[in-house]
């Protein structure tokens, strides 16, 4: 067995002792506070959670009773919040989760300086600390962690802490891990060593040890593709009269103005690629303000449903079996009364429009307001989606303050396509699927983008659209600057 890095057993023992000391020095929440926090989550979800039908085997009341003795016997605030996380994850919704108090995850969980990605349920090494690049080459596949096969490890030790409505996102999150929420294939006590069995790209298998010490230090990452962009908006002209537009976030309303600043250039191209693969959402208003420029016709948005509680109607519904007049109140008694909102219509009047063949690149990290964007474009026939199924969760979370400074989020709003089709729990499916494999992470070529380019060229040719006028294209290239 090979150990990556120098042997520092004494330091590891010190870190473990220090971690234990830190845990013991935390003021443990009282039994009453712990029960209260669990009860708050149970109560608010009972009244407000929008997706109980997607977890038909979950008896929420019985599960609450099962967790009461567990939270009573929690040995630390960290253990208590881990129990709350497990409790909420049983609701299987990506917008319903528990956020630990500040510092709690950082004090108890760390990772090695290794970044993983999921491909066909394999854990692929896509970035490592520079000092590890020889011992752990990119493209290596992790087979075991601490003696457990990867599949067993994630199902037993990781999935129970992940809030997700879709299986593909559980695998994505479970292998990649989350330093904010404190779960992952390689997660563990700070300073401890993860024993991993890996298969190198050339086929050799080895067992290594890597230390969980990535937090709070500067890491020089070695990777093929880089680790993503911090820019919420990117614009680039491509060959053959096409344009590429990356909308990486809907958090900042400045994205709207940046988009409008390039509209005059988009009017001169004959095909558009919009990349939403790394857009985790934000404000749906931003999605609306952009999409209205991409259609000649008004656009229907999402149909929504939210639960209704009326105390008197619930009381009357109790007698639905005995009196016919009470039958209409039965849903209130059974917790199945809903307010249904017809789709809002996005008006396209009075705005500049660019209506050309458009490809949307989507993937597992496309979520929230970015999925709402896809709901709008679902009715636009000049749009095609390429990539992977999306995250599969959106809605309006209810924030619940918990004892000790943590928070819970309960999804209260059910979003659907305008015709009532569900996508939460499944993900929005692409028109053309491009599956990630190991090569996807090792190639400098963007396979999804290249597929989109080829499709756009064919589509433009089918519609009989010629190349751009030479002078217009030259002028366009001269103004090709990022509007940030």
Find the structural class using helix and strand composition. Answer: alpha+beta
| Percent range for β-strand residues | 15-25%
The CATH topology of the domain at 233-302 and 343-392 and 427-478 is 2-enoyl-CoA Hydratase, Chain A, domain 1
Number of helices: 16
CATH homologous superfamily of the domain at 233-302 and 343-392 and 427-478 - what is it? 2-enoyl-CoA Hydratase, Chain A, domain 1
Broad CATH class of the domain at 233-302 and 343-392 and 427-478: Alpha Beta
Low-confidence stretches: 1-25, 465-484
* CATH architectural grouping of the domain at 233-302 and 343-392 and 427-478: Alpha-Beta Complex
GO molecular function, one term: serine-type peptidase activity
InterPro entries: ClpP/crotonase-like_dom_sf (IPR029045), Tail-specific_protease (IPR005151)
Protein name: Peptidase S41
GO biological process, one term: signal transduction
Structural write-up:
There is one protein chain. The chain has 484 residues and is α+β, with helices and mostly antiparallel strands. Among the domains are: 2-9 and 109-223, Pdz3 Domain (Roll), CATH 2.30.42.10; 233-302 and 343-392 and 427-478, 2-enoyl-CoA Hydratase, Chain A, domain 1. It is built from 16 helices and 22 strands. It has helices at residues 9-25, 31-48, 60-72, 77-89, 104-108, 150-158, 167-176, 254-261, 263-266, 284-291, 311-317, 330-333, 369-377, 438-442, 447-462, 470-478, and strands spanning 2-3, 97-99, 114-119, 122-129, 141-145, 148-149, 193-199, 205-211, 221-223, 233-238, 242-247, 271-275, 299-300, 303-307, 338-341, 345-346, 358-362, 383-387, 397-401, 407-411, 413-416, 432-433. Strands 1, 3, 4, 5, 6, 7, 8 and 9 form an 8-stranded mixed sheet that branches. The radius of gyration is 25 Å and the shape is flat. The protein starts with a strand and ends in a 6-residue tail after the last helix.
